[in-house]
Structure formats: structure tokens, C-alpha cells
Design brief:
1 helix; 4-stranded antiparallel β-sheet; homotetramer; 6-stranded antiparallel β-sheet
Chain lengths: 168, 168, 168, 168
Amino acid sequence: MAAAKGPATAKRGAVTVPYARKNPCAGEFMHIDAVDWQVMPEPFCINGIRWKLLHTSPELGAWTAIYDCPAGSWFNAHVHLGPGEYLLTKGRMDVRGGSLEGGDTAYAVGYGYEPANARHDKTFFPIASEFYMTFIGPLHFLDDQDKTVAVVGWKEVQAMWLQQNGVE
Amino acid sequence: MAAAKGPATAKRGAVTVPYARKNPCAGEFMHIDAVDWQVMPEPFCINGIRWKLLHTSPELGAWTAIYDCPAGSWFNAHVHLGPGEYLLTKGRMDVRGGSLEGGDTAYAVGYGYEPANARHDKTFFPIASEFYMTFIGPLHFLDDQDKTVAVVGWKEVQAMWLQQNGVE
Amino acid sequence: MAAAKGPATAKRGAVTVPYARKNPCAGEFMHIDAVDWQVMPEPFCINGIRWKLLHTSPELGAWTAIYDCPAGSWFNAHVHLGPGEYLLTKGRMDVRGGSLEGGDTAYAVGYGYEPANARHDKTFFPIASEFYMTFIGPLHFLDDQDKTVAVVGWKEVQAMWLQQNGVE
Amino acid sequence: MAAAKGPATAKRGAVTVPYARKNPCAGEFMHIDAVDWQVMPEPFCINGIRWKLLHTSPELGAWTAIYDCPAGSWFNAHVHLGPGEYLLTKGRMDVRGGSLEGGDTAYAVGYGYEPANARHDKTFFPIASEFYMTFIGPLHFLDDQDKTVAVVGWKEVQAMWLQQNGVE
């Protein structure tokens, strides 16, 4: 018989009641100014985009962050492996070339939905911009031969954030 | 300033790095025969449906169970508040009146998808049947005036399962 | 044999290939000022909260909205049936009594996570406030005897929004 | 102002009501014997594993399949980018080396949960086995230098399944 494992196992006599006593998740609140901006490293973007990690959800693989994007900065090519939603609170964002080239040009204050499998070859910020984004699943960063640079999900962003803040 | 709370808070000097050190979820395995069937109580079904709770996911509000349904048993009216998927491993299930009345008649071995907001006025088992089902979100059980009987999600099924197994 | 149904069915000779040709979801962008505020009706809140519906996700049962909350307004008692995340862009929000009574007091600009099953007896705005929120699953509104007032998910908010905008 | 796009846009006078008229997803039912097994190609597994694609969910990036695994077959190294749940209906599956090497050995009939980020270097079937599995998000297949072989999600499995069935 297969062994039950993990912290949630409960037993009654000889009967295994595995995994049944899970706890609800805790609520969270974070004052955004209380946390310093960190620089997002170059494999992912160009010209000094900074970020704050606001939340990770290990079970679903979801995560939430806010980005500060100087004029002329951009994110390198990536595919959203699950859906993402953003609130552009400041500035302008050219997605998939912007509306002149068939993509979207987002003006603040604006809401956007990027579906699972959306590919963004270059997400460009012509003026200083800021946006908040919730992600389900990782981003798949690609180089210019479409080779994998990195698959970056809740676990990788958490590790990067903790390292940047001198924790762990 | 709002206080950070919960077990996942990390600090670096005066800077709060809230909620950033989450652990991955644990894997689970459960030999299904190692767990006893429990009777599903009457508000939810008629004629002796039994169940085993296999998994709960508190973060997404998902859960997984297997049901043993004698000939002539049924589930009472309910709405799926999120999507559900089932594998009918034995028997036959008339969903939404069955195919004679515009619904589906599922024969084993069969796969079914019930979308968010699917309403099942009576899910009927004309012969002895068994099915495995994964749920995202709760079920909303209704009486014959469409009043709420119960909203039953991961937390409520876990509490019922633990109580039925003499735990907690 | 069970009949295939729905728009995604494909056939090859005698072999059914059901449901396999699904389309990716479309991206969305919405300039928030281009849409008028609508009044959120009284069963759900008090003192003139207004809203804009930004997105619905029928498959997962997710949805996204932004709320404008005058000083002294509040949401009535409700349970989040799935997780929700918010960005408080302006003002102050007392959740579960606020920090003086064991809950959270959110100050702008702040991020919050409300887990599945979070119960909010009264979410109060002592000053003029605005917040953006993503929801997975419905809200379960309760009266003061804990009876169901309404279960409000993507489908219900879409119907209310379209009705308020004179569409459909 | 940013242009609204996509099929779900509605208008009322000069006011845009974007994306608000989404349709509920359709229910599905599929008699599993009505569909032929297809061979899963070699980059993903060894020794003749066959599969049937049962469902795709483009919005969440979820998908569901059933696998027929001859004695001595295995899946190559992969990481689950989101959670997966399986029902092992026949046989035995050694996950992460099996229980002798610190992993799980699943015996039929058994239920398993593999969390987001679970890495399976070799999932081995010592005897003829069959399992049904629901996935949220893609699988990331790796070679023996941990380089990406492929990221395989709902869209890629759908394309492979349609091609194998002579559709599209």
C-alpha cells in the first residue's frame, strides 16, 4: 500500500485519512511604499525596469508584481504561459508593436488582459510608466532564435526577490 | 502603516519583505482502497450515494472526490460555481435530464466537463455507477424554490470528511 | 455511444475527435476613462459605491472590476468563494473591522490578498477611496441572519453591467 | 484613446462597454472508447506510451488526457509548471524514483497530486498501466543537461492531437 506523506495526514484507527486537514490561506496586506524597488536584471528587460514582488501563490503558480519602467525601457521577448491582467497606472505601453503595428497601445489609466500563450516580442515604454500585474503561471523568455532563456514563475521570482532583499 | 501578518513575512533591516517566502505545495498519493466510503448526507443526494474525499486545494478552492452511486440514486439540484471535470468509471449518469430531455447521458468509461455556472437539477444514476471528479470552487445546492440549501466548497467537504472519519 | 456536442467538435472518418479545436482567448485593452461609472446597487453596498466592470473570464469564473467608494460607504457582508487580490489606489479600507479590531486597515497605495473563504462582515471606507480587484469565483452575500442574499460571479456581474449600460 | 478589439465588444451611444458580453463555456461529454489511442512521440516518452486528449481549457491553460503505458515505458524528464492530479486506474507508476528512492510508488487504484514545480526525472511503469490526468498549465520537458526540449501546454497538445487524427 502506498504511504501517505506530508503535513496534512490524519489517522483514525487503521484508516488513513490523507491530506484532509488543510488550513485556509492567510490574508495579506502590504503598503507598497514600505518596500524598496529592485532592479529587474538584463536577461528579462533593458534600460532599468524596477519591480516589487507583491504576492506569490504556490498552489496555482500565480504571482503579483508592480513595475516601474523608465522612458525607453522594454521587456525582452516572452510568452505568457497562463493568463495575466494588468492595470497601467502611469504612462504608455506598446504591446506587440503597439497599435501602429497591429498590437495594442495601452494608455494610462488602462486595463489589459493578456491570454495564455500571448507572445510579446518587445513590450516597450516610450515614456515613464508604471503597471501592476497579476499572473497565473510562468513567463517563458526567449532569445532571438526562439531558444529558451528562462521559465520564470512564482518560485523563481520569489527566489530573485529574496536574494535582492538580502533574505535567504 | 498597515501591519504585515501571516507566517510568510520576512524582514531585512527596517524594510518589510512581506509574504515572500512561501513553500511549494507537497505532492500527495493516496491508495483509494485504503480509505472507507462514507455516506453523503441527504441534503445533497438521495438513495445512498457514498464518497471519498481525495484532495483539497485551499488556495484555489479546488477539491477532488470519488463517488459510489447505487442504482436509483441522485444528486439534488446544484450549480457548479466553477468548472468541474469527471471520469465516469462505471455505470451511467443522466445529466440535466439525460440525452432524452436535452441533457447528456454519460456512459462509462466517459469523460465530462461541466462549466462554471452549469446547473444540474437532478443528476440521476439508473444503474450502479462510480465517478471521479475534480472541482474548482464550490457547489451551490438549491431547494425547489431555488433558495440556497448550502454552498459547499473545499472547506465544507474537508470538515464533513474529517467529522465522518472521527477526526477533529 | 454518447453524442459529441458544442462548437469545437471535429471528425475524421468514423472517429470522433471531440472538443479538440479550441481557440486561444483574445487579448483585451480598455481605457478606463472611456467607460462611465455605474452605481453598485444596495443589496451589495451602502452610500453610493460605483464600479466599472473591466473583464470577465467565463471558463475559470474570474472577473475584474474597479470601485469608487465615497467617504462613509461600505460593502455588506460577503464571503469570497475564491481568492481575490486588490490594489488600493486611493484612500483607506477597513477590512474585517480594520486593524483596531483584528482585521486589516489598508492604506493607499497598497496591495491585498483575500483568500478563498475570507469573510468580510463590513468593508468600510472612512475616506474617499478607489481600488482595483481581480476575483476568482463568486462572492456570497449574506444577510444578518447569515442567509444568502445572492451569489454573484462573472455571469451575474456581466448581466448587471450590461443592463446598467443599456446593452441587452 | 486605445481601441477596443475582439468579438465581445458592445457599444451604447458613444460609450464603449468592452468585452462584457462573454458566453458561458459549453458542457462536454466524450465516450472514451469512441476515440482511438495515439502514440505519444519519443521526445516525451519511451517504449510506446499512447494517449487520448479529452479536453482543453484555453483560458486557464488547462487540459485533460488519459495515458496507456506498456510495461517498461516511461516519461522523460519534465517539470509541471502548474498543478496536476491523476487517477491511476491500472498498474503501477514510480514517480521520482519510486518509494524505494524517496519518491512515490503509486498503485492502482490510486489518486495523486503533483504540485506546481514538481520535477519528474523519470516516471516509470514497471507493469502495464493506465492513468487519467488533469493539468493546469504546461509541462516543461528537459534534456539531460537541463536544456529545454519543449514547453507543452493546452495549445501544443491540441495541435499534436489534431495532427495525429488527420484534422487540420
